[in-house]
């Protein structure tokens, strides 16, 4: 018996949330490029949602959109060392993340991955759960003061996850520094995160016009991160006490093979990566989950019923809430596109790939592909609940897969599941804005604007 049946919640037809219109399959190269400048999501036609592999041309190189699990496994697991980030991807991410683990390559990446791994084990994440719960409870207390006034839940979720990121990283709140950090994120997203034509055309060693602006931004950004690290160090550490936050864990981390610690510059890049990845993607995922539940009151009531039945909020008791998070990330994957360039010739699904050819694995497409999912555009959390079989590991990639799978995946899932359960357990969420909210791809899958909600206590 489902939760809906147990609590006599009416079952309705699945919600199909609005999504951008699909591009014409015969769109010209320049038309597609213009669409990509706004949002790559709007540049894909119907073929990309139906075909196993879509082959095209990209500035004298072949491009391949992969939609089959076997081909994706080949690129991201079996022969992953042959595929590196594209120059455009590096240009967009490097000013914010430096040479952090998300974009490092080769030996540098292996050193970072080995060194950071102990800080993100389930046991380490469990030690950080009290920070997550405390911040969520504080957010709920503030939301209770809103009354029936319209509220921007996207901003509220970004503030909440930023506060969680600050406390789990540094053990101090982000009241003073949060507005500045959010200013950096908004400035970069609006001005510098959209790839320009020359970003995609020029070799990485040749700076594009936007690279000069990105370099100036990076200088200010790294100074800000350095200030946060200095403030945390000034707070000190209790000798002999266990690590109290990620900064302690990362500062004490050593490469298990070489014993090497992070340099101060490397540590700064890792801190920037964890703060940005830890709040931007999780905050956006929570916004999308609240948006979907506002559109689907029956499913919202099913989450509330699970929370009420669970009593104490514990992650193991929140299976349907976790399924809502999983389905939210299927429809709105945090990373909507994984782009790779071939370093040497290869063969994928019987198709020859030359050096510098571009390989595109788009979770946005993969998660809505008509051969891989039933009702692919519908919001159906039950597809992640027993007795439904789990999705193919290479057809569902909210955090990537293989050697470069996101290290913070468990952290993010625990945070998002606990926060959503507490929020829906406390409030009924209603969408005031009736105009469609369209997802756009700018580094992450974001809404085209922030709609207004109304919340009321349960």
Describe the structure.
- It is a single chain.
- With 458 residues, the chain is an alpha+beta fold.
- The protein has a single domain, classed as Cytochrome P450 (Cytochrome p450).
- The chain is built from 16 helices and eleven strands.
- The protein has helices spanning 3-6, 29-38, 69-78, 87-97, 106-116, 122-144, 153-170, 178-191, 197-201, 209-234, 246-252, 264-295, 297-310, 319-331, 363-366, 409-426; strands at 53-58, 61-66, 83-85, 338-342, 346-348, 351-353, 358-361, 427-431, 439-442, 444-447, 453-457.
- A five-stranded mixed β-sheet has the order 1-2-7-4-3. A two-stranded antiparallel sheet has the order 5-6.
- β5 and β6 (351-353) form a beta hairpin.
- It is globular and about 55 Å long.
- The protein starts with a helix and ends with a strand.
- The model is unreliable at 1-11 (pLDDT under 50).
- Keywords: Heme, Iron, Metal-binding, Monooxygenase, Oxidoreductase.
- GO terms for molecular function: heme binding; iron ion binding; monooxygenase activity; oxidoreductase activity, acting on paired donors, with incorporation or reduction of molecular oxygen.
- Heme binds at residue 406.
- Pfam families: p450.
- It comes from Bradyrhizobium lablabi.
Major beta sheet, strand line-up: 1-2-7-4-3
- Helical proportion, percent range: 40-55%
CATH fold field value = Cytochrome p450
Q: Which H/E pattern describes the elements?
A: HHEEHEHHHHHHHHHHHEEEEHHEEEE
Dominant shape: globular
Task: Return the structural class.
Answer: alpha+beta
- Count up the domains: 1
Could you name the ranges where pLDDT drops below 50 across 5 or more consecutive residues?
Answer: 1-11
The tally of beta strands, per DSSP, is 11
Look at the structure and give the mean pLDDT: 89
CATH class: Mainly Alpha
- Tell me what the CATH architecture is: Orthogonal Bundle
InterPro entries: Cyt_P450, Cyt_P450_CS, Cyt_P450_E_grp-I, Cyt_P450_sf, Cytochrome_P450_monoxygenase
Binding site for heme: 406
Pfam families: p450
GO molecular function, one term: oxidoreductase activity, acting on paired donors, with incorporation or reduction of molecular oxygen
């Amino acid at each position: 018996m489902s939760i809906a049946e147990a609590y006599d919640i009416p079952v309705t037809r699945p919600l199909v949330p609005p999504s951008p219109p699909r591009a014409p399959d015969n769109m010209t190269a320049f038309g597609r490029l213009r669409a990509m400048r706004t949002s790559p999501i709007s540049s894909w036609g119907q073929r990309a949602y139906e075909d196993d592999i879509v082959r095209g041309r990209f500035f004298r190189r072949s491009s391949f959109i992969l939609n089959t699990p076997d081909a994706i496994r080949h690129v991201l697991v079996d022969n992953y060392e042959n595929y590196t980030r594209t120059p455009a991807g590096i240009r967009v991410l490097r000013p914010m993340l430096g040479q952090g683990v998300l974009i490092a390559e080769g030996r540098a990446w292996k050193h970072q991955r080995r060194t950071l791994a102990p800080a993100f084990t389930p046991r380490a994440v469990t030690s950080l759960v009290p920070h997550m719960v405390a911040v969520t409870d504080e957010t709920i207390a503030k939301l209770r003061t809103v009354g029936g006034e319209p509220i921007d839940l996207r901003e509220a979720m970004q503030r909440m996850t930023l506060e969680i990121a600050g406390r789990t990283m540094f053990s101090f709140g982000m009241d003073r520094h949060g507005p500045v950090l959010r200013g950096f994120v908004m400035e970069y997203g609006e001005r510098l995160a959209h790839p320009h034509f020359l970003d995609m055309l020029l070799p990485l060693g040749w700076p594009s016009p936007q690279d000069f602006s990105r370099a100036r931004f990076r200088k200010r950004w790294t100074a800000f991160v350095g200030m946060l690290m200095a403030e945390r160090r000034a707070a000190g550490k209790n000798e002999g006490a266990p690590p109290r936050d990620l900064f302690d864990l990362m500062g004490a981390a050593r490469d298990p093979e070489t014993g090497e610690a992070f340099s101060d510059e490397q540590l700064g890049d890792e801190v920037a990566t964890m703060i940005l990845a830890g709040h931007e993607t999780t905050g956006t995922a929570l916004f999308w989950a609240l948006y979907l539940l506002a559109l689907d009151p029956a499913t919202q009531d099913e989450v509330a019923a699970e929370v009420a039945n669970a009593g104490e909020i514990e992650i193991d008791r929140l299976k349907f809430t976790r399924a809502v998070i999983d389905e939210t990330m299927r429809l709105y994957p945090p990373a909507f596109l994984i782009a790779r360039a071939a370093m040497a010739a290869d063969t994928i699904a019987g198709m020859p790939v030359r050096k510098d050819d571009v390989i595109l694995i788009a979770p946005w497409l993969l998660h809505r592909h008509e051969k891989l999912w039933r009702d692919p555009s519908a919001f159906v959390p039950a597809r992640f609940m027993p007795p439904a079989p789990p999705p193919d590991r290479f057809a569902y990639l909210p955090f990537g897969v293989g050697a470069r799978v996101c290290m913070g995946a468990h952290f993010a899932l625990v945070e998002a599941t606990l926060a959503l359960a507490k929020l829906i357990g406390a409030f009924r969420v209603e969408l005031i804005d009736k105009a469609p909210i369209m997802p756009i791809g700018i580094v992450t899958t974001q809404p085209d604007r922030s709609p207004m909600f109304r919340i009321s206590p349960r």
